[in-house]
Amino acid sequence: MGIAELRNGFPDWAKDTKLNLGSLTRSKDLNEQQLWGTMLAVAASAGNATVLREIDAEAKEHLSEAARDAAFAAATVMAMNNVAYRSRAWLGDDYSGVRMGLRMNVISNPGVEKADFELWSLAVSAVNGCEHCLNAHEHTLREEGLSRETIWEAVKVAGTVRAAAQAYDILATTASDD
């Protein structure tokens, strides 16, 4: 089970995703917790049960229970925040001073290293397309001492896991056409 299972299920048209998923799981720019937390947070936010199940199965071998919980927390709090911050930006200047009014206590006490949680939040924000959150988390990560290469590696992981979810959504939908 896990990444190998996902990779074996990709059709030829998803070969790039298959190759990227394999190479990114051997990342030298992310430590084990950063890599698997990023993969799990994005899988949890991507909306495909197969991808989440398979990544979670393998992530359990690499993450503590606290880190696993924090990855799920990053996925859920960013689902909320990405919608709110994107909407506030789209609504324009009239809304720029409006108090957000949402609880997000997990950001200040995620149960893992601040930089790791911020990295997972950045990855989810990249997938969800929230420029405000992406920039805010990148700024915090740079203050925490992470390099551009480490941050970019998390973005590549996020894009690849999202692509895996898309491929499995396509497979599930088109399989019913046969």
How is this structure best described in words?
- The chain has 178 residues and is mostly helical.
- The chain has one domain (3-175): AhpD-like.
- The protein is 70% helix and 0% strand.
- It is built from eight helices and no strands.
- Helix 2 (15-24) packs antiparallel against helix 8 and helix 4 (49-59) packs across helix 8 (148-175).
- The mean pLDDT is 94.
- Disulfide bonds join 130-133.
- Antioxidant protein with alkyl hydroperoxidase activity. Required for the reduction of the AhpC active site cysteine residues and for the regeneration of the AhpC enzyme activity.
Write the layout of secondary structure elements.
Elements (H helix, E strand, L loop, with lengths): L2 H6 L6 H10 L7 H15 L2 H11 L5 H27 L22 H15 L2 H13 L4 H28 L3
EC number: 1.11.1.28
Pfam families: CMD
InterPro entries: AhpD, AhpD-like, AhpD_core, CMD-like
Top keywords for this entry?
178 residues, mainly alpha, 0% strand, AhpD-like, 8 helices
A few lines on this structure:
By secondary structure, the protein is mostly helical.
Structural class: mainly alpha
Could you name the CATH class? Mainly Alpha
- Number of H- or I-type helical stretches: 8
Q: Would you identify the CATH H-level superfamily?
A: AhpD-like
- Mean pLDDT across all amino acids: 94
Task: Quote the distance from N terminus to C terminus.
Answer: 26 Å
Low-confidence segments, given as residue ranges, are none
Order of helices and strands: HHHHHHHH
Give a quick account of the main beta sheet: strands, pairing sense, barrel closure.
Answer: none
Classify the fold: give the CATH topology: AhpD-like
Total tally of structural domains: 1
Known CATH architecture:
Up-down Bundle
Radius of gyration using CA atoms only:
16 Å
Tertiary shape: globular
Residue fraction in strands = under 5%
Helix content: over 70%
Strands, total number: 0
Keywords: Antioxidant, Disulfide bond, Oxidoreductase, Peroxidase, Redox-active center
Subunit structure: Homotrimer.
GO molecular function, one term: disulfide oxidoreductase activity
Pfam family, one: CMD
